[in-house]
Amino acid sequence: xxxxxxxxxxxxxxxxxxxxxxxxxxxxxxxxxxxxxxxxxxxxxxxxxxxxxxxxxxxxxxxxxxxxxxxxxxxxxxxxxxxxxxxxxxxxxxxxxxxxxxxxxxxxxxxxxxxxxxxxxxxxxxxxxxxxxxxxxxxxxxxxxxxxxxxxxxxxxxxxxxxxxxxxxxxxxxxxxxxxxxxxxxxxxxxxxxxxxxxxxxxxxxxxxxxxxxxxxxxxxxxxxxxxxxxxxxxxxxxxxxxxxxxxxxxxxxxxxxxxxxxxxxxxxxxxxxxxxxxxxxxxxxxxxxxxxxxxxxxxxxxxxxxxxxxxxxxxxxxxxxxxxxxxxxxxxxxxxxxxxxxxxxxxxxxxxxxxxxxxxxxxxxxxxxxx
Length: 372
Hints:
The protein is an alpha/beta fold. The protein has 3 domains: 3-202, 3-Layer(aba) Sandwich (Rossmann fold); 209-244; 247-369, Zinc Finger, Delta Prime, domain 3.
């Protein structure tokens, strides 16, 4: 993967390139950030640039044999470790073909996407002690091509304690020309002894402008839709892809939101019950996307009220609705709306009963909307 294929992060890319060109590569680095920010793509682009035989000023060439091998995830000196369901395979090599397949489709994926690809039963994966032994064995072998040996450990926080303890010595005193690239979404759950042995590379949210440009250029979105989706995604490309859908799905989210606000404002209990009944029969993924969409519309309403449209990021259709609706979202109720819809999203993710959840949501919206 080339740096040009990674969305945003111009400054971070430049720092990583500088690190290679100045030969100041730390032997153990921890990329920290949500998968949708691009932690894995950045690590892959970094490795490809490091192995590239014909480095360009701002990127790998993409044409040399080393670049082609890394792009296919088949370079003999690039090794991968990642969580596996132990009853499927105790080591990463047992499911490496599924791993390569998922990355080839898109390197922007999270742990849930990987679980679904690897295990139809969707059981919890870990990086266990057998995998740690494989890591040590691979890194004690000589480099095939005479340069660096790279061990990329994705979702390093999924290492159990015995696995992490086995790696402490080799992390602190690795064989020559060995590079560890650990990738983590949540460093707080990792052992302090692992953290203390790594140089941290914090990957921030993708800038909204960069995300919007990507959606326009690669996903054929209009400027208004791209800005609206980028604003909702909060710098996370995975979430942006969830919001993307087709135009019919985007329209349905908007219409569901408008209908909810109208029936609750009118205090029409029968229509509120009909609305909750309808959305409770939608897929759980649709319900999650709708709740995030609602949070976006509340925030945009507040921005419209207080910034005179200078900071709003909405489509033309959304702007037409907000011109009438935004006045109902004020400092008196915005915190209640945000908390209620965030909680609803949390509980839907954890398999709450949608009929009960959305019925309760309706009555809470009815209370809040009259507090403006």
